[in-house]
Amino acid sequence: MKKIVAIIAAVAIVAFSTVTAFAAGLNASEQSVLSNMRSPANMKGNSVYVPASYINQAESYFNTIDMTADQAGRINGLISQGRSFLEGTGKASVSELTSAEKQTLLGYASAAAGVLKMSAAAGSDKSKVKIISKSGSVVVDDSGNVIKATGTESQLLSIVLISVLGGLFVLSSYGLIKGKRM
Amino acid sequence: MKKGKSKKNRKSKKNLKRFAIFPVIICLCMLLFLGAVLAPTAGSLISIGSMFMSDKQVDYSKSYDNIFIPTDNESDTIDASEVEFPGINKQFGELRIKNRAVDAKLFFGDSSIPLRNGVGVYAGSFIPGYGRTILVAGHNNTFFNGLKNVKKGDTVEINTSYGNYSYKVTGTKLTTDTDKKAYDLTAEKENLVMYTCYPFDTLGLTNKRFFVYADKVSGPEITGLYE
Asked: Which chain B residues are Cβ-neighbours of A156 within 8 angstroms?
């Protein structure tokens, strides 16, 4: 009997250890949130969409969690409220919103993130959003451009070059002063 | 005697000016200049400096998680339940272009950690096999310097824990970092877009980017994503 229990336990351990930490896949709840995010807001006749970069980042994140129907319902409610708020501002685009209006909009995003125990923060111009998980890892980061600066490592070379040029300038100006005096 | 003493005093004052005050002023000016011009990117300098100055041993290889385990999976499809979706800043694969000096660790996310250690997939794009756009960034003077050698028809290989992919280069483009037509994050077809700063050996910041485009040739398609 003991042997059988041991074998079952061993099989169970192996089986559970092969299950991946975050298996990809989107359940119905996650799909409904993504679908809601893709619906445009009507701002003075203009259809305003959530940028694809946000939706894609959300989709990637949803691939790492399992959202419940209750969470999806609450998030969808907040998205709809945010959309209604945008439409009610009477502005034609997001860039026309005042700082206070952007703050209100961020409040909806923050509340939606809070449903998944995450927090949202705005960038310096309040049009960029960063969502951080409870553990402190970045989930959505739209505080930068899609295309990044990919030459920053060369800054070290720039510093060396500027220092060398500066040194040469100091030496030459010292030589000039000395030359004038002579 | 007095005349000689005052002459000596004047000379020592001059020497003080020449050899102490003047260099100090120049040094301060240089520091102010460097501070003002390079303040936004001083982080990299500080981290490099701390590498030499700190008594703590800095191990950059441990500054990220690695979920990449090579596989020889050659099937055409793989179920989503078998794919571990990478979190931000995790290494989940390798990217190489043979004979073109491109061979790098592949990360999800394109912040400083991925770009210091390899190349990174923009989190607003997707992983290989997802059937969407894969937008990969890399530094021009390190891991993506070899993009300058890439030619149409070259093969890009991406190895992940869930499958091995190959893409065929279809073209290149030189444009600016604000050109939104350089990529399409809404595309429903799997396409690989790699980019780096241009010119390839440029010093300092530039708004020019060199893009390389490639289409999927082989590798398992992730199925069952939408339950």
From this structure: 44-45, 48
Sign of the Cα pseudo-torsion (B149, B152, B155, B158, in order): positive
Inter-chain CB proximity B137 and A158 less than 8 Å:
no
Q: Any idea what DSSP says for residue A111?
A: H
Phi then psi dihedrals of residue B191, to 5 deg: -145, 140
Instruction: Give which of A39, A4, A136 is closest to B89, Cα–Cα.
Output: A136
For A102-141, write each residue's pLDDT tens digit.
889 989 988 998 999 888 776 655 556 677 887 777 777 6
Are residues A24 and B80, on separate chains, in Cβ contact within 8 Å? Answer: yes
Give the domain ranges of chain A.
2-141, 152-181
Q: How does pLDDT run across A26-69, given as a tens digit for each residue?
A: 999 999 999 999 999 999 999 999 989 989 999 999 998 999 99
- For residue B82, which amino acid is it? E
Q: Which of A137, A147, A156, A163 to mutate to test the interface with B (most CBs of B within 10 A)?
A: A147
